[in-house]
């Protein structure tokens, strides 16, 4: 079967004036459909860089990347963003909710971009809010939510486009342990429904909830089990 993510010998250089910094130094990663994977490593090891490449927010300097079997390094900017909207959902540590919009409107944002009509937007967004246990908060502004609730809104928003791949960059980093566990429960439930999940984390407790840990250090994959 085709892997969701098939990355081979990916390098990423950042130009800093005269200097180039090699954030990824020849990374190989394969993630199969239906997996739930933790990506772990010290600060500055390249986790976010790799997630941004996996999520088509950035492109490798060199190397190969097949996403759902398609060579995405060849796509134009527009094709990449279309591919991203179609296949990928993102969750970030800082939530990135729009402060002047209520919960429902925040969840609707990707659907608005996708040109979905008002009524369908409402329906999809409300059903996702039910799924993350926040239907009763739909009118609240983000400032009227706890951290865990904000992250659940962000997860609902990430699910609107029915992504096959959910990428979360330190999603529990701003949450206390118990709230972080609730967020991981939600990822686990989504994974059981067939969504492939990649979670970046520092925390061993979070990583322990996944079946596989990929470790990165200084831009190299250290160890990948199995
Ligand atoms: N846009 C950038 N320009 C220059 N250097 C960067 C840029 N983004 C990241 N880096 C560097 O690349 C390395 C890896 O960063 P990052 O992927 O954010 O690490 P992590 O998420 O594991 O903490 C760090 O040394 C960081 O300073
Ligand atoms: Mg990071």
Ligands present = adenosine-5'-diphosphate, magnesium ion
What is the top-level CATH class? Answer: Alpha Beta
* Average pLDDT rating: 94
- Indicate the CATH architecture: 3-Layer(aba) Sandwich
Terminal residue distance = 18 Å
Shape estimate: globular
The total strand number stands at 10
- What ranges have pLDDT less than 50 throughout 5 or more consecutive residues? none
Helix/strand/pairing category: alpha/beta
Query: How many separate structural domains?
Result: 1
Secondary-structure element order, N to C: EEEHEEHEHHHEHEHEE
What do we call the CATH topology? Rossmann fold
| Strand percentage | 25-35%
Helicity range of the residues?
25-40%
Largest sheet: 6 strands, mixed
User: Count of helical segments?
Assistant: 7
Strand order of the largest sheet: 6-7-8-3-9-10
Query: What is the C-alpha radius of gyration, as a whole number of Å?
Result: 17 Å
CATH H-level homologous superfamily name? P-loop containing nucleotide triphosphate hydrolases
């Amino acid at each position: 079967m085709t892997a969701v993510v098939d990355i081979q010998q990916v390098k990423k250089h950042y130009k800093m004036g005269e200097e180039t910094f090699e954030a990824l130094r020849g990374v190989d990663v394969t993630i199969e459909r239906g997996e739930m994977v933790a990506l772990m490593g010290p600060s500055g090891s390249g986790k976010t860089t790799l997630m941004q490449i996996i999520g088509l927010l950035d492109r490798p300097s060199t190397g190969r990347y097949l996403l759902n079997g398609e060579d995405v390094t060849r796509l134009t900017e527009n094709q990449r963003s279309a591919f991203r909207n179609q296949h990928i959902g993102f969750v970030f540590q800082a939530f990135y909710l729009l402060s002047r919009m209520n919960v429902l409107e925040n969840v609707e944002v990707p659907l608005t971009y996708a040109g979905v009509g008002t009524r369908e937007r409402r329906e999809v967004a409300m059903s996702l809010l039910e799924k993350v246990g926040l239907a009763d908060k739909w009118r609240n502004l983000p400032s009227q939510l706890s951290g865990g609730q904000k992250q659940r809104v962000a997860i609902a928003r990430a699910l609107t486009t029915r992504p096959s791949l959910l990428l979360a960059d330190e999603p529990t980093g701003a949450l206390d342990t118990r709230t972080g566990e609730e967020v991981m429960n939600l990822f686990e439930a989504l994974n059981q429904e067939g969504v492939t999940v990649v979670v970046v984390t520092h925390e061993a407790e979070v990583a322990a909830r996944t079946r596989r840990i990929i470790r990165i250090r200084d831009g190299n994959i250290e160890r990948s089990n199995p």
